[in-house]
């Protein structure tokens, strides 16, 4: 319902292809009063890498587009069609596409939930030399994410993903933390009070690893919410994470 409301107003481009794959499409919600240049928040949906889509990801747009920020809902090929390596590559390619095709965008902010937080964290570990462009990633908001994939290898989650240990290791952001570059973005790791112990543990340990490597990182423990409404409430202007997001994505 929130996405339907967002699509009913403003300037929107739906199903913009950034590649040839069926899932390689973007929805772009432009600012209601765009300036010559504007920042963009790229939202990466969750769903354990095997459900949900960008078509349910526009609910967070209205509070930001009204403040001069574009919101990009990112689609990718979920499992079993898309193996983990492909999903990670698609996210990276989508960011390169935005840089090349929309020069009015100045500054990219990532926001991912659950599996989407994992994919956003993988984007932070990218060697952009092979893409021939370097997205100007200014910040990342990682909500209730998983940053070490090995613990899910022997759970039902891996039935569709079919990851080997090698695939899980090379796609685990926790294993890919590097010393922060001078231009490294700020990272907010958010976790819900009623998230499972594993989500809470991984959020704490990943934020600690980033901080130890010199990144500017904050850990936000959100009271009174669970793994699902922690992100669904982004459609509410008064929600603390919405307010934090507005501060993290300044209007240009």
Automatic annotation (TrEMBL):
Biological processes annotated in GO: L-tryptophan catabolic process to kynurenine
Domain BD-FAE-like residues, every copy: 26-126
Superkingdom of this protein's organism: Eukaryota
SUPFAM superfamilies: alpha/beta-Hydrolases
GO molecular function, one term: arylformamidase activity
Alphabetical UniProt keywords: Cytoplasm, Hydrolase, Nucleus, Tryptophan catabolism
PANTHER family: AB HYDROLASE SUPERFAMILY PROTEIN C4A8.06C, KYNURENINE FORMAMIDASE
Protein name per the record: KFA formamidase
Organism per entry: Nesospiza acunhae
